[in-house]
Amino acid sequence: MQVASLQGVLKVILIILLIYYGLKVLTRLFGPLLLKYVTKKAGQKFQQQFNQYQQTKQPEEGEVTIEKKPKQNSSNKDAGEYIDYEEID
Question: What is the pTM of this model?
Fold first, then answer.
């Protein structure tokens, strides 16, 4: 059975603290750059989708389009029979 020495425990704690504060500093340095990159890419994607939508929705000048809604059958033959239930006290 091995016993941890005080020097080994302090060394591990020091390494963990150095990694924690190192990541904290790197996040402060590179966080805004990463955020700017992500927002720029999202903006480009939204712009591309908007342009694609505009191209498909605008008819040419003088062109007339009539869009009809498909018929919806209100009765469903597979629904079965409706039964009214009453409460019995």
Answer: 0.44
